[in-house]
Amino acid sequence: MAVEFKLNGKAVRIEPDPGESLLDSLRERLGTTSVKDGCQPQGQCGCCLALIDGQPKVSCAVAADGCGGKEIVTLEGLSAEERDLTARAFVAAAGLQCGFCIPGIALRAKHLLDRNPNPTRTDIARAIDVHLCRCTGYTKILDAIELLARMRRGEATAEPSEDGRVGASYARYRGRELVLGERPYVADMTREGMLLGAFALSPHARARVLRIDTSRAAKLPGVRAVATAADVPGERWYGLLYMDWAGFVAVGEEVRCVGDVLAAVAADDEATARAAAALVEVEYEVLEPVLDPSVSIAAGAPRVNPAHENELSRSVIRRGEGDIDAALAASAHVVSGTWRTQRIEHLFLEPECALAEPLLDGRLALFTQGQGVFDDRRQVARFLGVPEESIYVELMPNGGAFGGKEDMSVQAQTALLAKLTGRPVKLRLSREESVRLHPKRHPITMDYSVGCDAEGHLTAVKARMIGDSGAYASVGGKVLERAAGHACGPYRVPHVDVVAVAAYTNNPPCGAMRGFGANQASFAIEGCLDLLARKVGIDAWEIRNRNVVEVGDVFSTGQVLEKSVGIRKTLEAVKTPYYAAKDAGKAVGIACGLKNSGIGNGVEEWGKCRLVVEKDQTVSLYNGYTEMGQGLLTVLIQFAVEVTRLPASVFRPKVDSTFALGCGQTTGSRATLFAGRAVTSAAAKLKADLDRGLALGDLVGRVYAADIVIADTTPLGAPVAKIKTHTSFGYATQVCILDAQGKVERFIAAHDVGRAVNPALCAGQIEGAIHMGLGYALTEELPCESGMPVTFKLRELGVLRARDMPPCEVILVEDPEPEGPFGAKGVGEIGLVPTAGAVAGALEAFDGIRRYALPMKDSPAARAMSVGKIRGDGAARGNWH
Ligand code: FES
Ligand code: FES
Q1: Which ligand minimizes its atom distance to the CA of 102?
Q2: What residues form DSSP beta bridges with 589?
Q3: Whose C-alpha lies nearest to ligand 2, atom 2?
Q4: Residue 736's closest CA among 874, 822, 832?
């Protein structure tokens, strides 16, 4: 049935399929890409917002065939002046990171400000309640909308900063286009003759595949290819460290989790592809899944992976003279307990998507949003059985990742479908598929015993950890290794005995997620410090003051900390507000944290850069690390500007395979550190030519190269004379202050960032991490039953909304890192390492209850949040582990 309506002032006529959403009509039929699909059909992220007859509606929840005669406005339909003001306000206020959520929020802001030109901050937070942002923590979004209101009232102007020097808050690279929805993500891309893909996933966590029949799917009109394991020409197994993950599970094999792929379909449109995927018939012998990591590693448990025992990894740290139990026994005070953390979904706003396109020269182009495009290329090439050089790979804007896009998701199957059909193929996961498929943050159970002397100086830490790594190795062993390494937090501990085990189960895989094991360990060790402080008779600030590491102290792993150890400065930075809040009778919690910057542990790491002077006298800045909202490309420009003194507008960052710049994943808070060093090195070569009196016009075609190698870290437990497990560490102290009802009233975060290359982006990273950390502490979880998540609903998963966020004060402390570019080190992960510990301390101060498990849903602070109530059992579910 034809439907006619006005879109941005123009009459349009479409013939939607039965049940088609307005969002799909706008995007697929009318090419309106400012409306994004973050959760269709849930209607819970706000990315698809449109104004329908003046009312804001999430277009994924509106039937297209009900829109006849309506006036529909999207961000594209605003006046040029409104669009300009909006973009300038958001960019000037640093009110965006990955940008995926922003067009919807920007349109919401217009609707709000049309009706209420002078809103309060609370009005704004309420207005954007439908909208989810996983990156920013909302603080700078509220700043941006306040600024926009003032600009619209003629009370302010704002120009995004063009000062690209190190230390300036230079405007986010291509931020304007992201705000306005003009910069395409992979899902926004189209190609002539493009097919759309879909997966058939396993409904079982563990089952033997007896038969796969694709005949009914293949016969559906519009279907162009149905691929299964039998169609893979190369190596069907992939994985970042250990190739145990099948791109397709074959007949005779076991599915190991509910995200396993049995078949992939390419069809003329997505609806047909999904309908065909549903017609793929798979006969299973359903088997009892292994769901408990402790059971998994016990004798007699069924093997999750037939080629590997269920104990995926074991990390051991033993340091200090004699027996740990004797050291504890000799301590004046000892506390013991079991701490538990939950499984966490990344919930990046942009679900996984890839586009593969056969090129005329015989190569395959792969447009991806993965966290390591060269790893994507390497694994896809193996999957297809072709040389890596036959695949051109390009990073598109990435709508958030947080570690969840390190592993392969859709890239290999999409590439195969393009090979099989000879046509461009795009394959995008739905929100539910995304949650089922990519690795999560590990649930870890941690038994701790910690001792101190009569004055509160730590004497010994004994910890036993077991983490649920789920169905595939991913980087799970490394996460538990990092949890072991961070088991003592940023504290001086003479006697350490830590064992951390990662176990396979049939739960969704767990792997990298912001914090990478440090968050879990921090929750436990910070709890131990609070308990010890009470025994000693000192407060929580003071016990940390007596134990934080200084230059010359030894980290848990045995590494002597030689430089850039800013933890005491961060502790001092929060001292006054901490005691002021306590003196005012508030319930206050405090926690310290550290996080490695750089993978380390003996892994060779690189930073690679090519600066190419182009004919138009711009300079292409190639690097191998990923921009995923954290601002990497912006700070790389700043390094280049600082060295060359050229204007920032000269530099054009690119991440593709034009040059061999494979650096591995953007992980371990290392991209600024290592890519930054490579950029400064390449830029110095360009500067040398400029200093010889040459202009860019004289240098067209020149390539300035720099590859830096970091090969001086040592593996955990290596018998070496000088232990150096990590290149650098970020440090933080955070303070949580509750109100009289036990709700989080205010949060203070002091962070040693080495050097704040871009203070606005740096603070934004920390604010966003605190948002994620508060959710981790209070409301977020991904419980599973029989290996299947019990919910996929965004509100139930517990990611905080704007109204839930307390005011956050970020204090940037600079203790320069000599191995970092201009003193910088990573800030991506440390932001939420101490957060849960600080919240737990504040809650105990409020109601006297020491909480040992996350999320702390029984607390008044959690009950005050608008999210995180899971259907059926609500907050009473308690702690999942
Ligand atoms: S896609 Fe419509 S609200 Fe998320
Ligand atoms: S900027 Fe909001 S989700 Fe990334």
Answers
A1: 2
A2: 736
A3: 133
A4: 832
- Ligand 1 mutation pick, 24, 26, 32, 45, max ligand atoms within 8 A of CB: 45
Of ligand 2's atoms, which has the minimum distance to the CA of residue 399?
Answer: 4
pLDDT in tens, 798-856: 999 999 999 999 999 999 999 999 999 988 889 999 999 999 999 999 999 999 999 99
Which region among 202-216, 363-377, 522-536 has the lowest average model confidence (pLDDT)?
363-377
Quote the CA–CA distance of 409 and 430 in Å, as a whole number.
12
Long-range contacts of 539-546 (CB under 8 A, 24+ apart): 539/582, 540/588, 540/589, 540/590, 540/841, 541/571, 541/574, 541/575, 541/578, 541/579, 541/590, 542/456, 543/452, 543/456, 544/491, 544/571, 544/590, 544/592, 544/733, 545/571, 546/455, 546/456, 546/457
What digits encode the pLDDT tens for the residues 730-747? 999 999 999 999 999 999
Per-residue model confidence as pLDDT tens digits over 547-602: 999 999 999 899 999 999 999 999 999 999 999 999 999 999 999 999 988 878 88
**401 alpha carbon, closest ligand:** 2
Distance CA(194)–CA(189), nearest Å, equals 10
632: three-class secondary structure by DSSP:
helix
For the record, the structure tokens of 630 come out as 């954290």
Give residue-wise pLDDT tens across range 118-154. 999 999 999 999 999 999 999 999 999 999 999 999 9
Predicted confidence at residue 871, as pLDDT, reads: 60
User: Ligand 2 within 6 A of 136 CB?
Assistant: yes
- Of 20, 34, 48, the one to substitute when testing ligand 1's pocket (max ligand atoms within 8 A of C-beta) is 48
Q: Which of 24, 47, 428, 801 to mutate to test the pocket of ligand 1 (most atoms within 8 A of CB)?
A: 47
Write the pLDDT tens digit of every residue in 423-459: 999 999 999 999 999 999 999 999 999 999 999 999 9
Q: What separation in Å is there between the alpha carbon of 23 and the centre of ligand 1?
A: 8
Verify whether ligand 2 is closer than 6 Å to residue 349 (CB atom): yes
Strands (DSSP E) contained in 655-727 are 703-710
Ligand 1, CB cutoff 6 Å, lining residues:
23, 37-40, 42-48, 58, 60
- Distance, CA of 673 to CA of 828 (rounded, Å): 11
- Which ligand 2 atom is the nearest neighbour of the CA of 96? 1
pLDDT reported for residue 881: 30
Closest ligand 2 atom, residue 349 Cα? 3
> What is the rounded end-to-end Cα distance, in angstroms, of the chain?
50
pLDDT of res. 22: 98
Question: What is the distance in A from the centroid of ligand 2 to the CA of 110?
Answer: 18
